[in-house]
Amino acid sequence: MLTLTVLIARAFSSLNGNMVKQGPRPLVICGPSGSGKSTLLKKLFKEFPDTFGFSVSHTTRKPRPGEENGVHYHFVSVEEMQSAIEKGEFIETAVFSGNMYGTSKKAVENVQHQGKVCVLDIEIEGVKQIRNSERLNPLLVFVNPPSIEELERRLRGRQTETEESLQKRLNTARKEIVYGTEPGNFDVVVQNNNLKQAYEDLRNFIVRELETQQGQGINVSLNRVFDE
């Protein structure tokens, strides 16, 4: 059996294949579990329903209450994940809290075929694999939580973690924050101390970038839906 390191290397090397067509740059959003990524993305999709499409990742972890297969994640076995990586079906993979995660080529292409900006919510290890990919050329956003203490409060509030798994997540979060806030690793760092301000910062960055792409002749919709 191939080691996980070799499997991830194969996924990374598959980026050299003929995969991503010319179109809007994919949007990669990253941040510690509990940083508010999902909430920010929900607001973004609500305001710009015709602009963005979510890339549904694969994972070997078990579904949480309320999660649907094919909607929140493609939930697969370790064997299925390893087989898909060996076949070169992923553009990035990572291991987080003992579970495998990955973004498949097909997931990205499904969004691109709709003429939308593909949104990828991935882990730091995945970001490291694709950040310099000329073929993907992604926009990289890091969502930074107010503090580790606030992050811990949010994670405990979910009541989905054992004490051991919680501490693992917090230890991982500390490393993610160090990497995420290092100048040059991301195109923008969104500080999520206040949800309203954080969303405004995220939206302004994305709109500015997409308007630049429109000026370069790339077709992308920026139609907005306003709250009543």
TrEMBL record:
Family: Belongs to the guanylate kinase family.
Subcellular locations according to the entry: Cytoplasm
Domain of life: Eukaryota
UniProt xrefs under SUPFAM superfamilies: P-loop containing nucleoside triphosphate hydrolases
Listed EC numbers: 2.7.4.8
GO cellular component, one term: cytosol
Keywords: ATP-binding, Cytoplasm, Kinase, Nucleotide-binding, Transferase
Disulfide bond listed as a keyword: no
Entry protein name: Guanylate kinase
GO terms of molecular function: ATP binding; GMP kinase activity
Lineage: Eukaryota, Metazoa, Ecdysozoa, Arthropoda, Hexapoda
Residue intervals of the Guanylate kinase-like domain: 24-207
Keyword tRNA processing attributed: no
Reactions accelerated catalytically: GMP + ATP = GDP + ADP
